[in-house]
Write a structure and sequence with these properties.
By secondary structure, the protein is mainly alpha-helical. Helix content is about 60%, strand content about 5%. This is Transmembrane protein.
Amino acid sequence: MAGSVPPASNDLPPSSPGPTGPRNNRTVFWVALAAYPLAALAWLIWVVLTRGTEAADVWDYSDAVLTGAIVALLVPLPVLIWGGLSRRIGQALLGVTIGAVIAVLALPLSLHLVHARRTQAFEDKKARYAEFVATVRSHDHARIRKALPALPDGLSAPKALCALGGGATYTFERWLWFDDHAYGEALPSADLLEAAAAIVDGAWTRQDKQATLLVLLHYLSERDEPALFPRWAGLWRRTLEQADAARTPLLASDYRGDTGTCSAAREPADTVLKRWHDAGLRAWLQAGFGFSEEQRDLALRAVRSKPMLQQLTAADPEFAAMLNEGRSEGADALSHLSYELSELLDRGPDPAVPAELVGALREAGADPRRSEHARKPCAVFELSESERRPTVADSAARIAAATRIHQALCPPDGLAQTGKTADGGDANHHRAGTSETADADSERR
């Protein structure tokens, strides 16, 4: 139609169609990839800090691994759900898989780091103990008292002294392997006495002090140093309520704490008298200690010479009463002595010494027939003599001493005839029964 305007044509190019889906990116993949390594890093830090100590054992570490395994099952769930909702489940699965492979390295790495941290803590403890040893060597009592409570793990005073004498200090538990035990350097007894003196003068309880001294006494006995007993006794008296009390029995402490690899519950008389015999008895009496009823039995069995027996009965009249014929303690002392008579005759400085002691015990009233042991002193001595081989080197003094002992232990009343045991059996029968009673007699010894 004339004058009509045709419709304007669209000169712009048609716009390109937009994408049919969400914008392509790899956010899901990278998040999934980082999930496991980040969780493993957090677990690794937690394990090293909580299980990298000497107090932790293999079961503590196993619990941590089990906790990590449970967390590992839960970590990928949010990422997989997100990947599914954003239609990127393939990226999520690939990222989680690669991240899991990387995270597995945290397990061996944790073992290495935990072991290294525990080992370093163990070495640090040993180094600090070495510094304490140097302090003890200085004999500075004030410094010793200050350094002892500062030791790692709070070593008790008895355990510390046990370590100073060569006992165990610290233990490193190697998981699934043998433990590593650290032992202290065995210091001389003079250093141990100085350390004990510092403790006695410190603020520790009486039980702690006495337990420490009993550990020290154990070392003096092991090292056969009876000459140091007077100094030890002086320290012990300083722990008593009445330090100058005469004839105070020397009894074991009722300490129940940690003494390391040493024992503080051992009876002092058992430690001193059984080990040192006359020397121990002499030191005991010179220190002014008395005897309890049980200790008197030990003391009587420890006598090895007539002069010591006389000194013992003069110091305590109860010993004379124990040797009366109406009591069995003297006979039991003869029984214990009879096991050693042949050896004393062979190795002693003078064969007459044991013979004089047996005679003195008999004169004081000890009757071998009253022994409560399974084998009487006469039978034990006869058996010991029959089992040794006489030699041409046997001196006349040894032969004469053995004859005197036999006459004293085997009274001529038919109880112990030649070739007969004290209970009337013949020698062959007695030897056959030796193994049946050896255990019981060894316990009595």
